[in-house]
Amino acid sequence: MNLTIIVRLIRLSFPIIIISILFKIMHWPYTQLLMTIGLGIIVLLYPVRFYLKKEKRIIDYVKLLVAIFLPLNIYLNLFHLPSHYILPIISSTSFLLYLLLELYNNYINKESSKELTVFPFGVLSVIIAILLLGVFYRISHFENATPILITGFVLLFLYFIVDTFKLNK
């Protein structure tokens, strides 16, 4: 299987997870199915991507740990399934190590020159602001919370879809 196809499938799992989070917040049906599909794609395909990648650095090994243990931990906690106490320790430690390595590579080592998105940063900031406003309205039980929240999630979903299939890869 081509590495580009695997990366696109993994990136498509993020909109599925975003929609499943919306379903969970709104108490709509099929939440567990959507979350299983989204997180399952990551857990199953990221090790294949890792295997096919030619050059592997330390950060790649850490990302492999994050891609396996963090979705498992999220899934088990989100649906109140039994899990071992070591799973959250491994997932959070590997995630923190990944963040530190990524910060080091991007800001101290200046190693990364890749662009993260096809959109300017302001577009993502507006989407996140709409999403956070909807979340705060929902928590506070204000009117119009649901349309704002759904708008934010749909915009974030579309953002990931467009970013996944951008032409300049």
Automatic annotation (TrEMBL):
InterPro entries linked to this entry:
GldL-like_N (IPR055087)
Transmembrane spans: 9-27, 33-52, 61-79, 85-104, 116-139, 145-162
Q: Which domain of life is it from?
A: Bacteria
Tell me the first and last residues of the signal peptide. Answer: none
Domain Gliding motility protein GldL-like N-terminal intervals: 16-46
Give yes or no: UniProt keyword Transmembrane helix.
Answer: yes
Task: Look up keyword Cytoplasm and say if it applies.
Answer: no
The record's listing under Pfam families reads: GldL_N
Keywords, sorted A to Z: Membrane, Transmembrane, Transmembrane helix
The name under which this protein is listed is: Gliding motility protein GldL-like N-terminal domain-containing protein
